[in-house]
Write a structure and sequence with these properties.
about 200 residues; alpha/beta; Rossmann fold; five-stranded parallel beta sheet; three-stranded antiparallel beta sheet; 8 strands; about 40% helix; globular
Length: about 200
Amino acid sequence: MTFEALERGAVDFFSKPGGEVSTGVSREAERLVEAVRSVADADLDAATRDRCERDDGSAERAAAPASAATTEPAPGVDAPLTVVIGASTGGPNAVERVMAALPMTDCRVVIVQHMPEAFTSRFADRLDEASAYDVREASDGARIGAGEAIVARGGSHTRIDSYRAGRLRVRLEADGSQSVTPAADVTMRSAAAVGGRRAAS
């Protein structure tokens, strides 16, 4: 139901607090304010057009050529390449559109979407269906090669640990120093340190 709501135009969601009486909602005050501000600036006409395209199947048709592509370098792309995508409020639909349009090439993709742990695995499954890339949820020590992508697991940060023989290695860690978890800043800094000019965000 949550992802269906996002498809229909919702820009964010909150995990249901546990217990009969919970103070969890009050702790989400900052995220609620952020979400309301995002809605105020949202291009609702564009969101409506995107939904219409998905409903009539044109988005799937546009993505079809990429599914048949190989991992040969795309025109204008200096491979090998690491792409890090970071998104917060309103991000899931935008990330899905980017992944659906991303050409298959010698590229590894790391996606950091601020989302609770219970949802990141399902989000990875959706992106796997929408794109030509092999998308899965990040796990500690996972390696990512050409044509593969991972979604940072909710509840922990994803760091790029090393790059060797065309494959990235990621490390998951708990760190309360950031205001959100997972935080795109953590992943992007580590990608820049490891990937250098081969990293794009």
